[in-house]
Known about the structure:
- By secondary structure, chain A is α+β, with helices and mostly antiparallel strands.
- Helices cover 35% and strands 25% of the residues of chain A.
- Among the domains of chain A are: 1-54, 2-Layer Sandwich (Uridine Diphospho-n-acetylenolpyruvylglucosamine Reductase, domain 2), CATH 3.30.43.10; 170-263, Enolase-like, domain 1.
- Chain A is built from twelve helices and 14 strands.
- In chain A, strand 6 and strand 7 (139-141) form a beta hairpin.
- The mean pLDDT of chain A is 96.
- Chain B has a seven-stranded mixed β-sheet, sandwiched between helices. A five-stranded mixed β-sheet of chain B has the order 7-15-14-13-8. In chain B, strands 18-26-27-28 form a four-stranded mixed β-sheet, with helices on both faces.
- The radius of gyration of chain B is 27 Å and the shape is globular.
- Chain B is α+β, with helices and mostly antiparallel strands.
- Chain B has three domains: 19-27 and 487-633, Aldehyde oxidase/xanthine dehydrogenase, molybdopterin binding domain (Aldehyde Oxidoreductase, domain 4, 2-Layer Sandwich); 37-144 and 202-294, Aldehyde Oxidoreductase, domain 3 (Alpha-Beta Complex); 426-472 and 636-790, Aldehyde Oxidoreductase, domain 4.
- In chain B, helix 9 (377-395) runs parallel beside helix 18.
- Chain B starts with 18 loop residues before the first helix and ends in a 5-residue tail after the last helix.
- In chain B, 59% of the residues are buried.
- The interface between A and B is medium-sized, with 17 and 25 residues.
Amino acid sequence: MYDFAYHKPSSLAAAVSLLSADPDAKFISGGQTLLPALKHRLNKPTSVVDLTGIAEMRGIRREGNKLVIGALTKHVEVATSAEVKAAIPALAQMAATIGDTQVRNRGTMGGSVANNDPAADYPAAVLGLGATIVTSKRKIAADDFFVSMFTTALEVDELLVAVEFPIPEKAGYAKMRNPASRYVMAGAFVSKGPMGLRVAINGAAACVFRQTDMEAALASNWSPEAAAGVKQSADEMNGDIHGSAEYRAHLVSVMAKRAVIAAG
Amino acid sequence: MNVITPFEGIGARVRRKEDLRFLSGRGQYTDDINRPGQAHAWILRSQHAHARILSIDTAVAAAMPGVVAIFTSADLTAIGGIPCGWQIHNKDGTPMAEPKHPVLAEGKVRHVGDPVAVVIAETRTQARDAGEAIQVEFEVLSGVSGTTAALDPAAPRVHDDVTGNLCYDWHIGDKAVTDAAFAQAAHRVVFETTNNRLVPNAMEPRCAVGDYDTTTGEHTLFTTSQNPHVIRLLMGAFVLNIPESKLRVVAPDVGGGFGSKIYHYAEEAIVTWAAAKLGRAVKWTSDRTEAFVSDAHGRDHVTRAELALDKEGTFLGLRVHTQANMGAYLSTFAPCVPTYLYATLLAGVYATPAIYAEVKAVFTHTVPVDAYRGAGRPEATYLLERLVDVAAKQCGFDKLALRRRNFIATDAFPYQTPVALEYDSGDYFSTLDQALETAGWADFEARRTEAAGRGRLRGIGISTYLEACGIAPSAVVGSLGARAGLYEVGTIRVHPTGSITVLTGSHSHGQGHETTFAQLVCDKLGVPISQVDIVHGDTAKVPFGMGTYGSRSLAVGGSAMDKAMDKIITKGKRIAAHLMEASVEDIEFDRGTFRVAGTDKTKALAEISLAAYVPHNYPHDELEPGLEETAFYDPKNFTYPGGCHIAEVEIEKETGRVTLINFTAVDDVGRVINPMIVEGQVQGGIAQGVGQALLENCIYDEEGQLLSGSMMDYAMPRADDLAPVSVATHTTLCTHNPLGVKGCGEVGAIGSPPAVINAVVDALRDYGVSHVEMPATAPKIWSIINGKSL
Lengths: 264, 790
């Protein structure tokens, strides 16, 4: 780890101004991605801005037909929240499968969404539920948020504050883990509700994406078979020592099918 | 007789004495050791698999904060290369190619991770900062990582003077007799396989602290080693030219070794040398990333085997051609792994009358490969137990009947194999029957049918294995190329009031020796284990030792203790005879009590020891005072644990994912001292074997870049990858050591991989599959099920 300055602001405004003043600063919340990168000297920020003192970024609350979850909410909190379990059980179940116990006790939803790791879980839930990202500047629809691998619509001095999840009629998530890293090899988050019928695929490609053919198939026939019947093209799927693009394309159909089963 | 309650002797399920300190965080590992004035070393390693070093510019780095010194090979001209401990001879009698293994790269780097320079600074961070500022100009060269590819005459050479990258071309067995057996065979079965390369990944990364006393000229090395005396010998005599009397090597608590901490590594020599050069202690601690490219790897064989059978299925002959990857340099015991720890095991549990094996050892641009838990024997077992299943399927024999037909008969021991070893004891029929019963083999088809209803393919697989451990008779291994003896040393120090300190050359790095060895002493001398302390891991305390590997600690180290205890008893009897005014021939000893035979006159061991240390009334004319004895025990033979492992797996058809459902092991490890420790050792070994079969794979690209260089890409088995493991023992005693013990450290890793793969192949029986290479990953299985090329 290289030396860096450390700041712990207590307000959103203070955090944003720290980053505006220093474009080489990094936000940190749970640190489950940034800390390993720092330890491996893969990242050399001038300063690290610790967000965990900002009360405005905390909390899980129901607002009408939406569930609003603060960016600093830890995976374990989402996994065990009665509010989340009642409103969007698939989201709680998804959070319960992220990483391991240590990761879930440190890692935060905002960190995972803002990092947009293609093999992370949360981007699939956010896109698959058609959520809205609330930032320090504006609101961004999930469809416009995840741009490409590790890249989102967030500007450098823009902070993810909360995510508003519309409450679906039903939703489900299924994934296949990489046997080494336990990150997602291929996963699918499906939902049916106010945002229409949505199928978000993570792990399999460079960035989470909507599988529109499956959405169409499920819209006309909500069944596991309908999802499984849609074949994902292997083009643009990841291929590596853990599985070929063709295998990942196949997994997309299998995971979508399982997600529909999980959704009920 | 001195009865200790509860019983703590041989066979008692005693809790491990060492666990209190380990579980409460009070273990003392090498990285916990900090010496006054200590500096820190960081090693600049090659990112290239093969490159010429054109220049190294350390000027900027040397001026950075905290830097004490920077060394490259140019500074090490007075020291030797890292020695190899075993010399194999080619078929034509010439010695193997043994290119120099420099401590720091000289002129070229030959694998990713090859050390180029060392920076020593006040802190580890400063050392690393400066290390990253060293400018090395490389001319990148083509590399080769594959074993077979490296033998291609057109392949890049790892060492300029080693033609064809061939380290040796060795053979064993009678070729003519074997060929004749094939000529009359009714069936010939061919099997080709690659035994996947593994990264050991002991929980504790390696660490070394060098210290030097300028007033006495004494060097001290604290290191994560399985055998400190061996390191003292290799490093002192061959690398740094330090006499034993001036070199102390300490291996304190060590957090797992699995073979990877047997070897003498460059970092040990660097910190020891630099400490003397700088007059201050130097510490180096590996991180996990560094461990992937600097700890010796395991396995990595490419093999073609042929089995000849008569029409009833009796094995007539076995021919094996193996190419073994040595990596870029010869690690300490590397040459003996694919030869005397592998090809000599090719008889397995079978009475195959003719065996011929050829082994080519090959240099590649990869991390050196050496012994890893099992070392050669897992490769041999995997080959044989897969081959037998393949033969059964191809020729239409029942796989159990084929095994039973060819087992060495229980009354045939001692049994001389055609590949040098003479087995002393075993009972392969009983371990098989017991395992079949425990695993519910007979009811398997019902479970398979039930699984099919869930969309799962269920398979069951068996491995009836044998291994040779308890290494080894010094004269024998010497004739085979070992450059050291393989005896062990034990000292029994009975203190004046009767408590006991044992000094042993064996080293415990997870095995529970402090308990098992204390139980031996308790059983024989009648002293409770709380009053028996086991001292190991320090050349300044223990007279000598060859260390712990090859499941040798109990069979060899324990036998040395037993011999030393015999000497204690012999001397004690003479003291007792004097004190009780009896003839020494009339003194009996049983668990702590000396008795005049047929009388009620007794003396406790503590009374004898007190008399020995306070010798007011003592046979001074015959005996020296004191009660301490040392024995060197050189084994008469290897020991031969064996048994039967059965794995049951399910394959999810949709994804190809293999799940281990349950695992049954019935092992003959000889006499069991502590059943709980044996179970733990076997379970741990099985976890590693299952890891090799289903998960672990060290992958290089063709040129030698490591693709699975971290836990993100190298799949270690975790608790949820495993399944309930049933461990039982069926004992036949070793006939040639005093304890009747065989060894249990490696059986799990040796017996289990073929059981798992046999189960996977069985699960795929409807798909026309004859073999699945390790590891049986989900995409691989899915490709097979769907008829795709891999």
